[in-house]
Amino acid sequence: MAEIVRLADIARYEGREVTVRGWLYNKTDKGRLQFLLVRDGTGLIQAVAFQREIKPEAFEAALRVTQESSIVVTGLVRRDARAPGGYELGLTDIQIVQLAEDYPITPKEHGIEFLMDRRHLWLRSTKEWATMRLRATVIRAIRDWLDSNGFLLVDTPILTPSSCEGTTTLFETEYFGEKAYLSQSGQLYNEATIMAFGRTYCFGPTFRAEKSKTRRHLIEFWMVEPEMAYADLDECMAVEEQLVSYIVGRALEERAEELKILERDTAPLERVQPPFPRLQYDDALALLAEKGEPLPWGEDFGAPHETIIGASHDRPVFVHRYPARCKAFYMEPDPQNPELSLSVDLIAPEGYGEIIGGGQRISDLALLERRLAEYNLPRQAFEWYLDLRRYGSVPHSGFGLGVERTVAWIAGLQHIRQAIPFPRTLGRLYP
Amino acid sequence: MAEIVRLADIARYEGREVTVRGWLYNKTDKGRLQFLLVRDGTGLIQAVAFQREIKPEAFEAALRVTQESSIVVTGLVRRDARAPGGYELGLTDIQIVQLAEDYPITPKEHGIEFLMDRRHLWLRSTKEWATMRLRATVIRAIRDWLDSNGFLLVDTPILTPSSCEGTTTLFETEYFGEKAYLSQSGQLYNEATIMAFGRTYCFGPTFRAEKSKTRRHLIEFWMVEPEMAYADLDECMAVEEQLVSYIVGRALEERAEELKILERDTAPLERVQPPFPRLQYDDALALLAEKGEPLPWGEDFGAPHETIIGASHDRPVFVHRYPARCKAFYMEPDPQNPELSLSVDLIAPEGYGEIIGGGQRISDLALLERRLAEYNLPRQAFEWYLDLRRYGSVPHSGFGLGVERTVAWIAGLQHIRQAIPFPRTLGRLYP
User: In whole angstroms, what is the distance from residue B248 CA to residue B258 CA?
Assistant: First the structure.
């Protein structure tokens, strides 16, 4: 064995003998030349076993090794412009750690359910690998931006005694004799923590027991929710467009190779720069009517409407001031027109739909009490939330950004289920 | 209004008039001089209203304002060595945003249940504030270290069809007609993702429906779980001690002020440097016997044993090679003595107990199949996990670090419940 290196760092080792520990991704048999495509989790390299230059046991191992067997290979790092990644390994030794038999995912086409049943293996395939690396960068970029812009991470609970977005889509569990529900949003808790820390965010898994089987829905998904004390709707939009532009910029900068593997046209992503267009709800309705998809005033948009609005702009677009009745109980009414709420959604371009929902929250105690009653929400469970309006209430705003929708958009995925390592969808809880 | 600034940045504004948006933390009435202690979430400042220098409405507001009212204050930033934080604000204006009445948490002593019922407000108190800021730094440090050392964040699911650590402490929910359980660990999924990415980690909430009411247990807690392909027990320990030393170093560097608020003696933290002592389980038993707390061979340690082991060392201490029967089914046996497992716990000093559990996992298919049978685990649910030994199995190791135990230790807390914003304990699901 020579020095053990990661393929991500291979360029540093040109002309040296190194050892790589990984798996066989693919093999091409040219008789006395065996071309092994080796992956180690950080990259891929072509390793060449030439019968004349390698000891017989090692060449025999090269002949015998199968797809996805674990192998430790040693060889000389050579520059080779034709090789994927620009380098190849002239093998001097191969050790098989474990010989895999009949790996089920072959280069031929497989159906989506077949692949999803084998998600624990499918993640090894280059496109899934590239998507998950992009996902990690998206998450890292979100945290970096928030941490550098005065937001403090304050985790909110998953097990909660009450619901935020309505009780029909809640997962319920028994909590030592009480009923508990899986959180659909950390927002209400964020509204408490901003009064202690100024600007906060929570970032965790979120659960919606929705019976929708669309390409934009997951049962379990990750969401980041920033919240700001002393901030109005305009500031909320300003933060959103800065954050989203930063995420896309980091993805382009750090995951160029992965975006190439995903065959993503990056031109539309390069255009994601602030300011984003701002449409009032009424303007969006006019746009929909013009595009032949009219909607009655007061209705919320569905996927087809979002697609039209998104496709009419070359970057993400804000739609703000929705009718109060199509948004949640805690939305601050527009002082200009109390039928409208100071709410805002951010719609991604290229048909990816809503990636952010947010707005300004009610700060007045009496109004919030009325809203709880109007929405038939159990007052008792919201007493602590009402306290936030009793003791030092301030104008405040915030939003939730869906990680998988953002990843699906940046990666250019057809379906959100490939934007998360182990998707939970209607009918899928395995593996 | 002057330029709006954050108290965290106040030193930059010496000699200038600024506006601070925050809350009244405390007030001292000296007649014509009103001393307002103002907090804005990023820090505290003493703001002085001098009747002669301020317009009457503003002075009247200073007289009238109550604890935790939201206020916007404008004044001149003056250096003052006697003031907390080193600066004070000579007020020129005060606006009350919302006048709080009868804020329930007063400077007098309150019982823990009283405070926990008001956790949404209690977080505003300086010690809780300092703890949560320290917590955010601990989490940030963990991610920074892992992201810079070749680990990829790959999220694992919360809703799972089977259990990892035994079914008696699982929360159950209905998943569209199937039974689902809240994850107790992402480890099994990490073992899949390392085969795709080399080194990975998951970092999320974890649930254990344990009926323990100790100062070290939470029902819902956060855990980071790094996992490494091609890594043995020794490498696992090396990574753990580097990570833990880095976390403590960052906390000391970035949260000196918070540690002071918490009255934490930092001398024991300064000593947290690698290498950490490594004790075999047998050595630990000998130590316990010597300290008058003998334990029969084969038993796992309880809190009193961990306290003794931790107190006998000046930095965190590894205990490795526990008897196989006191650890989980997936632990690799010690090739020197198959009665032992290649497991390791890291025990914090100063009585804080186990903060990490980990070790090397079984890589052999036949052995893992036997273990599943011995532990009476449902083979069907583990088929995908067995696949990891069929297709490119490698020696691999990993561990789980409990965030709240780590925060409690670094902060010097008496009880883990104050290390998380909204604790879930036996009998507490509110707020």
Answer: 14
